[in-house]
Amino acid sequence: MISKVLVTGSSGILGRVLYDKLLDEPDFVTYGLVFNRTTNAKKIKCDLRNETEVNLQLDSLKPDLIVHCAAERRPEIVSQNKTQAQSLNVGSTEFITKWAKENNARVLYISSDYVFDGTNPPYNEEAVPNPLNDYGVMKLQSEQLVINSNNANVVLRLPILYGIVEYLEECAVTILFKKVLDSSMTAPMSNYEKRFPTHCEDVAQTIVNMVKYLSKNGTGLPSICHYQAEEEMTKLEMSLKMAEVFCLPSNHIVPENPPTGTEATKRPFKSQLNCEKLKKLGLYHQPRTFSAGIKESLKTFLN
Ligand SMILES: NC(=O)c1ccc[n+]([C@@H]2O[C@H](COP(=O)([O-])OP(=O)(O)OC[C@H]3O[C@@H](n4cnc5c(N)ncnc54)[C@H](OP(=O)(O)O)[C@@H]3O)[C@@H](O)[C@H]2O)c1
Q1: Between 245 and which of 23, 62, 199, 295 could a Cys-Cys bridge form, CB atoms 3.0 to 4.6 Å apart?
Q2: Average pLDDT in the 27-44 region?
Q3: Which domains does the chain show, CATH number per domain?
Q4: Which of 73, 114, 157, 176 to mutate to test the pocket of ligand 1 (most atoms within 8 A of CB)?
Q5: Is the pTM of this model over 0.90?
Q6: pLDDT, tens only, 246-270
Q7: Could you tell which of 8, 10, 33, 35 is best to mutate to test the pocket of ligand 1, judged by most ligand atoms within 8 Å of the CB?
């Protein structure tokens, strides 16, 4: 039985939607940790790179389940500040899993399709990871900490996310809209890597389904689960769809040259996730279409 759930990264694009959804669930008491964004007084500030701070908060809140969302998710920033990123992306997971093990709590760790190299999709949960960049390596290290610490812990791998943002640069999908809006400039976009953009509301609902299942059944969730929406798109196709849903000019949006392989930060070509495990358990929330999701996410940014 789970009664107290703690969401780390509860100010991020995924964490804040998840936090709000869990608040609506009468069976759970929900807490949220944040770092810089402290505007919601109910959310608690905690630097997850500091073990003393982490233990202080966990000892006081005593969660039964920690949904660990906080991370530096931008691959270039991770590679440029490797030590700092390692202490957040892996160090925090070490502190959280250690506390959870000692206090009979569980961890649901949010991971990424970037643990795969993208050469042999679709990937099921047992497929052998082979990350291409530092971010993917760190996500995989955290996955292993989580799984090895307690076999009732769960890893949830996700693809590129989008949703309601505070500013367009907040996510790797909505940032494309800046170039879509400016038709005075040619906008080269990647037409190479295949992505499966997934709305945070759909992810959050799936996580709520998983938390309820864990609470009811004790265990029974696979150690690794995959969730993603079903539409395959390149960044060029996402940008053209944004123009289409708002009837904006799109002649300036053109394909950029494919990667040469010499890029500092490599990305998987097509890290499509097979989501059968969550589907079989009836926990897979049917995702919205990209057209519907992106229209809702971007409408406030139209002048
Ligand atoms: N976004 C994607 O496309 C994507 C794709 C696959 C997987 N994921 C994974 O999904 C999870 C959520 O990603 P997201 O896009 O929601 O991230 P995000 O919007 O970038 O939010 C990051 C969160 O981490 C918190 N944080 C940063 N530094 C911290 C620190 N030192 N101590 C405590 N908290 C700190 C931030 O807090 P403040 O804002 O308050 O500073 C924020 O709440 C991550 O684990 C990410 O790896 C994301």
Answers
A1: 295
A2: 94
A3: 4-162+199-231+272-287 (3.40.50.720)
A4: 73
A5: yes
A6: 999 999 999 998 888 888 789 999 9
A7: 35
